Amino acid sequence: xxxxxxxxxxxxxxxxxxxxxxxxxxxxHATLYWYQQILGQGPKLLIQFQNNGVxxxxxxxKDRFSAERLKGVDSTLKIQPAKLEDxxxxxxxxxxRPHGDEKLFFGSGTQLxxx
Amino acid sequence: xxxxxxxxxxxxxxxEPVHLPCNHSTISGTDYIHWYRQLPSxxxxxxxxxxxxxxxNRMASLAIAEDRKSSTLILHRATLxxxxxxxxxxxxWRFIQGAQKLxxxxxxxxxxxx
Lengths: 115, 114
What we know:
The complex is a heterodimer. Chain A is an all-beta fold. Chain A is 0% helix and 49% strand. Chain A has no helices and eleven strands. The radius of gyration of chain A is 13 Å and the shape is globular. Chain B is mainly beta.
Protein backbone atom coordinates (compact mmCIF):
# COMPACT_ATOMS: atom_id res chain seq x y z
CA UNK A 1 0.00 0.00 0.00
CA UNK A 2 1.43 3.39 -0.97
CA UNK A 3 1.89 5.86 1.86
CA UNK A 4 1.00 9.52 2.15
CA UNK A 5 2.86 11.46 -0.52
CA UNK A 6 4.00 15.02 0.00
CA UNK A 7 5.89 17.45 -2.19
CA UNK A 8 8.17 19.23 -2.32
CA UNK A 9 10.46 17.71 0.28
CA UNK A 10 12.27 20.99 0.89
CA UNK A 11 11.49 24.60 0.06
CA UNK A 12 13.45 27.78 0.70
CA UNK A 13 11.79 31.13 0.13
CA UNK A 14 12.21 34.72 1.20
CA UNK A 15 9.77 36.40 3.54
CA UNK A 16 6.69 37.86 1.89
CA UNK A 17 6.86 35.29 -0.92
CA UNK A 18 4.16 32.68 -1.38
CA UNK A 19 4.52 28.90 -1.23
CA UNK A 20 2.31 25.86 -1.74
CA UNK A 21 2.56 22.32 -0.46
CA UNK A 22 0.83 19.31 -1.94
CA UNK A 23 -0.43 16.14 -0.27
CA UNK A 24 -1.82 12.94 -1.74
CA UNK A 25 -3.32 10.79 1.04
CA UNK A 26 -3.59 7.03 1.05
CA UNK A 27 -6.26 5.95 -1.40
CA UNK A 28 -9.70 5.78 0.15
CA HIS A 29 -8.81 7.66 3.33
CA ALA A 30 -11.64 9.98 4.30
CA THR A 31 -9.86 12.29 6.72
CA LEU A 32 -6.85 14.48 5.92
CA TYR A 33 -4.82 16.56 8.36
CA TRP A 34 -2.21 19.28 7.98
CA TYR A 35 0.16 19.74 10.91
CA GLN A 36 2.89 22.33 11.43
CA GLN A 37 5.97 21.22 13.35
CA ILE A 38 8.40 23.88 14.49
CA LEU A 39 11.87 22.65 15.40
CA GLY A 40 11.92 21.08 18.86
CA GLN A 41 8.13 21.03 19.23
CA GLY A 42 5.38 18.50 18.68
CA PRO A 43 3.18 18.77 15.58
CA LYS A 44 0.37 21.35 15.78
CA LEU A 45 -2.88 20.73 13.91
CA LEU A 46 -3.57 23.44 11.34
CA ILE A 47 -6.59 22.04 9.54
CA GLN A 48 -8.56 18.81 9.35
CA PHE A 49 -10.73 17.74 6.42
CA GLN A 50 -13.31 15.02 6.35
CA ASN A 51 -13.83 14.10 2.70
CA ASN A 52 -13.85 17.62 1.20
CA GLY A 53 -15.37 19.44 4.18
CA VAL A 54 -13.44 21.25 6.93
CA UNK A 55 -13.80 19.73 10.41
CA UNK A 56 -11.38 22.01 12.26
CA UNK A 57 -9.37 25.02 11.12
CA UNK A 58 -9.28 26.83 14.45
CA UNK A 59 -5.48 27.06 14.53
CA UNK A 60 -4.99 28.00 10.88
CA UNK A 61 -3.76 31.62 10.52
CA LYS A 62 -6.40 32.47 7.97
CA ASP A 63 -4.94 35.85 7.07
CA ARG A 64 -2.04 34.09 5.38
CA PHE A 65 -2.72 30.34 5.25
CA SER A 66 -5.29 28.61 3.09
CA ALA A 67 -5.99 24.98 2.33
CA GLU A 68 -8.28 23.05 0.08
CA ARG A 69 -9.04 19.43 -0.58
CA LEU A 70 -10.22 18.88 -4.11
CA LYS A 71 -12.87 16.19 -4.65
CA GLY A 72 -12.06 14.76 -1.24
CA VAL A 73 -8.68 13.43 -2.37
CA ASP A 74 -5.54 15.59 -2.84
CA SER A 75 -4.94 18.66 -0.74
CA THR A 76 -2.94 21.85 -1.08
CA LEU A 77 -1.76 24.12 1.73
CA LYS A 78 -0.72 27.65 0.77
CA ILE A 79 1.06 30.41 2.63
CA GLN A 80 0.83 33.96 1.28
CA PRO A 81 2.77 35.98 2.31
CA ALA A 82 5.26 33.92 4.31
CA LYS A 83 6.82 35.16 7.53
CA LEU A 84 10.05 34.10 9.21
CA GLU A 85 8.08 32.28 11.92
CA ASP A 86 6.50 30.01 9.30
CA UNK A 87 9.80 28.12 9.04
CA UNK A 88 8.79 24.59 10.01
CA UNK A 89 8.04 21.12 8.72
CA UNK A 90 4.54 20.81 7.29
CA UNK A 91 3.17 17.33 7.78
CA UNK A 92 0.20 15.80 6.03
CA UNK A 93 -1.60 12.80 7.50
CA UNK A 94 -4.64 10.75 6.59
CA UNK A 95 -6.87 8.25 8.36
CA UNK A 96 -9.21 5.68 6.87
CA ARG A 97 -12.78 6.15 7.95
CA PRO A 98 -14.62 9.14 9.37
CA HIS A 99 -15.96 7.19 12.30
CA GLY A 100 -14.30 5.16 14.95
CA ASP A 101 -10.84 5.09 16.44
CA GLU A 102 -8.49 5.47 13.53
CA LYS A 103 -4.74 5.75 13.49
CA LEU A 104 -3.08 8.44 11.42
CA PHE A 105 -0.64 7.77 8.60
CA PHE A 106 1.86 10.58 8.11
CA GLY A 107 3.89 11.66 5.13
CA SER A 108 7.55 12.63 5.44
CA GLY A 109 6.70 16.32 5.43
CA THR A 110 7.85 19.44 3.61
CA GLN A 111 10.61 21.38 5.33
CA LEU A 112 10.09 25.11 4.76
CA UNK A 113 12.80 27.68 5.42
CA UNK A 114 11.79 31.33 5.24
CA UNK A 115 14.77 33.70 4.94
CA UNK B 1 -9.05 19.41 25.43
CA UNK B 2 -7.36 17.11 27.93
CA UNK B 3 -3.57 17.36 28.05
CA UNK B 4 -0.78 14.85 28.54
CA UNK B 5 2.48 15.28 30.48
CA UNK B 6 5.64 13.39 29.56
CA UNK B 7 9.29 13.66 30.61
CA UNK B 8 11.31 15.66 28.10
CA UNK B 9 13.93 12.97 27.68
CA UNK B 10 14.87 9.47 28.73
CA UNK B 11 17.86 7.25 28.17
CA UNK B 12 18.18 3.49 28.09
CA UNK B 13 20.55 0.77 26.97
CA UNK B 14 20.22 -1.49 23.98
CA UNK B 15 18.41 -4.78 24.57
CA GLU B 16 16.91 -3.57 27.85
CA PRO B 17 13.22 -2.79 28.46
CA VAL B 18 12.09 0.82 28.36
CA HIS B 19 9.12 2.24 30.23
CA LEU B 20 7.89 5.60 28.94
CA PRO B 21 5.41 7.26 31.33
CA CYS B 22 2.55 9.61 30.50
CA ASN B 23 0.18 11.46 32.80
CA HIS B 24 -3.30 12.46 31.63
CA SER B 25 -5.20 13.33 34.78
CA THR B 26 -8.00 15.20 32.92
CA ILE B 27 -8.80 12.37 30.52
CA SER B 28 -12.49 11.92 29.75
CA GLY B 29 -14.31 8.62 29.60
CA THR B 30 -14.37 8.48 25.80
CA ASP B 31 -10.76 9.53 25.18
CA TYR B 32 -8.47 6.88 23.76
CA ILE B 33 -4.75 6.93 24.63
CA HIS B 34 -2.58 6.88 21.51
CA TRP B 35 1.18 6.64 21.19
CA TYR B 36 3.13 7.74 18.15
CA ARG B 37 6.86 7.99 17.60
CA GLN B 38 8.90 10.17 15.30
CA LEU B 39 12.23 9.08 13.94
CA PRO B 40 14.65 11.78 12.74
CA SER B 41 13.58 13.49 9.51
CA UNK B 42 10.37 11.45 9.29
CA UNK B 43 6.72 11.97 10.04
CA UNK B 44 5.27 10.43 13.18
CA UNK B 45 4.27 6.77 13.02
CA UNK B 46 1.59 4.98 14.99
CA UNK B 47 2.76 2.73 17.79
CA UNK B 48 -0.22 1.59 19.83
CA UNK B 49 -3.49 2.75 21.38
CA UNK B 50 -5.94 1.68 24.06
CA UNK B 51 -8.98 2.72 26.06
CA UNK B 52 -9.02 0.85 29.38
CA UNK B 53 -7.32 -2.51 29.07
CA UNK B 54 -3.63 -3.14 28.54
CA UNK B 55 -2.71 -3.69 24.90
CA UNK B 56 0.08 -5.53 23.13
CA ASN B 57 1.25 -5.46 19.54
CA ARG B 58 4.43 -6.33 17.70
CA MET B 59 5.98 -2.95 18.44
CA ALA B 60 5.16 -2.37 22.09
CA SER B 61 2.84 -2.82 25.04
CA LEU B 62 0.59 -0.21 26.60
CA ALA B 63 -0.20 -0.38 30.29
CA ILE B 64 -3.11 1.80 31.40
CA ALA B 65 -3.71 2.63 35.06
CA GLU B 66 -7.01 1.54 36.53
CA ASP B 67 -8.17 5.16 36.98
CA ARG B 68 -6.90 5.95 33.43
CA LYS B 69 -5.03 9.00 34.67
CA SER B 70 -1.69 7.63 33.54
CA SER B 71 -0.26 5.11 31.12
CA THR B 72 3.10 3.58 30.25
CA LEU B 73 4.46 2.58 26.89
CA ILE B 74 6.73 -0.43 27.20
CA LEU B 75 9.38 -1.36 24.67
CA HIS B 76 10.36 -4.84 25.72
CA ARG B 77 13.82 -4.94 24.23
CA ALA B 78 15.08 -1.62 22.92
CA THR B 79 17.22 -1.41 19.81
CA LEU B 80 19.14 1.52 18.37
CA UNK B 81 16.31 1.92 15.84
CA UNK B 82 13.93 2.75 18.69
CA UNK B 83 15.70 6.06 19.32
CA UNK B 84 12.98 8.61 18.57
CA UNK B 85 10.60 11.14 20.08
CA UNK B 86 7.60 9.35 21.59
CA UNK B 87 4.29 11.17 21.82
CA UNK B 88 1.46 10.26 24.17
CA UNK B 89 -1.80 11.68 22.81
CA UNK B 90 -5.41 11.65 23.91
CA UNK B 91 -7.73 10.92 21.01
CA UNK B 92 -10.84 13.01 21.54
CA TRP B 93 -14.05 12.33 19.69
CA ARG B 94 -15.88 15.32 18.27
CA PHE B 95 -19.50 14.30 18.50
CA ILE B 96 -20.87 17.24 16.52
CA GLN B 97 -18.50 16.85 13.60
CA GLY B 98 -18.34 13.07 13.81
CA ALA B 99 -14.55 13.10 13.68
CA GLN B 100 -11.58 12.44 15.92
CA LYS B 101 -9.04 14.95 17.16
CA LEU B 102 -5.46 14.22 18.13
CA UNK B 103 -3.39 16.94 19.80
CA UNK B 104 0.34 16.28 20.12
CA UNK B 105 2.36 17.48 23.12
CA UNK B 106 6.13 17.89 23.39
CA UNK B 107 6.88 14.17 23.61
CA UNK B 108 9.77 12.28 25.20
CA UNK B 109 13.07 12.06 23.37
CA UNK B 110 14.36 8.53 23.88
CA UNK B 111 18.08 7.88 23.53
CA UNK B 112 19.33 4.29 23.27
CA UNK B 113 22.92 3.60 24.24
CA UNK B 114 24.76 0.74 22.48
